[in-house]
Design brief:
Blueprint: H1 3-57, E1 68-72, E2 75-79, H2 86-99, E3 106-112, E4 117-124, E5 147-151, H3 155-161, H4 164-223, H5 226-230, H6 232-263, E6 270-274, H7 275-289, E7 294-298, E8 304-308, H8 309-325, E9 332-340, E10 343-350, H9 357-360, H10 373-377, H11 384-394, E11 398-403, E12 409-416
Parallel strand pairs: 7-9
Antiparallel strand pairs: 1-2, 2-5, 3-4, 3-5, 6-8, 9-10, 10-12, 11-12
Helix pairs in contact: 1-2, 1-4, 4-6, 7-8, 8-11
């Protein structure tokens, strides 16, 4: 994906997430206001019912004006205009508040006209603690004689507890936003490191290929000189320089191909490929370098598959070459080709040093090399099996490795027919 498109997606996603979070917080605030209004209305109606019962008990007529006044969010004054008993008031308060499902702590006080002060009544608790008298100040109200006041000390926390779902949802959105931001940060960092790695590989291989080309040209020219041909040692040393330079050039080309394939998929030219002839050709080439190599092909017929011949040959070569390099004795490779349902299976079984089970799952990772003495002896970058895995994936083939019972490993490729 292009950097411009990625940045647009990141910005749009961030704006959308922040927008949802802001909308959620606004909805939560609105829900709190609604709950506050509902609580105020329920309290108002409940106190009005208390006033009615106080008047009914004294056979008096209700006042024309509204006897209830909300002084603050949690403080109400109720004008009764008639004498009443504290225990009767408390009974009516408990009854009506329970009827209207007002289940939060409250306390009340009554005005005593003889002493001209508010007399504390009681603290009614719903939070599993004993009712207790507090030193809360209940202010007097001018021009009223028979009245009482009710305070809800825990009204805010009571309303917030009724909005638990809203707060949990808001918290979940905040967590999602944080995860999104962290993920975007990680993606940007990984992209940055990937670009740095790719630039480093491209620059490194370019800087290597320039002097290497000069070495190969000079070595080939040197090897053709008569004085070199007459001296066996010099000729041998020159051939070593040429062969090692070609090997290094092959490694550099492999790194370039891998770096290029990380940017964009490698182009595949799919043709009908006959498997056995390619196996025999690779085996012959390996036996020229390793005369002790024993290779067998077990198959009931010559199978044909749809593949890119160049990359398929490289797959075979890499797998067999690894079996030769990672073997302490005389290398032996058995290639078994079989047909299972609608699939062709190729098993490459060797007698090498093997791989521990904990490292077996990592052998197809880029730049991964198994920590062992043999790995230190063998030159390489840990790209061979990564390349094999990548080509198999682009062909939509499956590849996996397993340890043999006695010695070595078996790498299997499953190809749909």
């Amino acid at each position: 994906m292009k950097t411009k498109n990625l940045n647009i997606i990141i910005v749009l996603g961030l704006i959308a997430t922040i927008g949802i979070l802001i909308a959620q917080l606004l909805w939560t605030r609105e829900a709190f206001s609604v709950e506050e209004q509902k609580f105020s209305q329920k309290t108002h109606v409940a106190l009005l019912e208390v006033v009615k019962k106080l008047y009914n008990s004294s056979n008096s007529e209700l006042p024309v004006n509204n006897p209830i006044k909300k002084v603050a969010n949690d403080y109400y004054i109720v004008n009764v205009e008639n004498d009443f008993q504290p225990d009767v008031l408390e009974y009516y308060l408990k009854t009506e508040f329970a009827k209207f499902n007002i289940n939060t702590d409250y306390e009340y006080a009554m005005y005593n006209c003889e002493s001209d002060e508010m007399v504390y009544g009681n603290y009614i608790s719903f939070s599993n603690r004993k009712a207790k008298k507090t030193d809360v100040y209940f202010p007097k109200h001018e021009n009223l004689v028979y009245y009482f006041a009710v305070r809800f000390p825990n009204e805010t926390s009571y309303l917030l507890s009724s909005l638990r779902f809203w707060f949990i949802l808001s918290l979940a959105l905040i967590v999602i936003l944080l995860i999104y931001v962290y993920s975007i940060y990680t993606i940007i960092q990984q992209k940055k490191y990937s670009e740095l790695q790719r630039d480093f590989i491209n620059n490194m291989t370019h800087e290597f290929k320039t002097p290497l080309s000069s070495i190969l040209l000079a070595s080939n020219y040197l090897n053709k000189q008569e004085s070199i041909k007459k001296d066996e040692k010099l000729e041998k040393y020159t051939e070593i320089i040429i062969s090692q330079s070609k090997k290094l050039n092959s490694h550099i080309e492999q790194i370039l191909n891998i770096a290029k394939s990380d940017n964009e998929p490698m182009k595949m030219v799919l043709t009908e490929v006959t498997v056995v002839p390619i196996l025999k050709e690779v085996i012959e080439n390996l036996q020229l370098r390793n005369p002790n190599l024993i290779a067998k092909i077990n198959t009931d017929k010559d199978y044909t598959i749809k593949a890119d011949e160049f990359h398929f040959t490289n797959i075979i070569y890499n797998l067999m070459d690894n079996s030769v390099k990672y073997c302490d004795g005389n290398p032996e490779i058995i290639v078994t080709i079989s047909e299972e349902k609608n699939q062709i299976r190729m098993d490459f079984c060797d007698n090498g040093i093997g791989i521990s089970n904990k490292n077996l799952n990592f052998i197809f990772d880029k730049f991964y090399r198994i920590p062992s003495t043999k790995s230190n002896e063998v030159n390489g970058f840990g790209l061979g099996l990564y390349y094999v895995k990548k080509i198999c994936t682009q062909h939509h083939w499956k590849i996996f490795a397993s340890n043999n019972d006695d010695k070595g490993i078996t790498i299997s490729i499953v190809i749909p027919k």
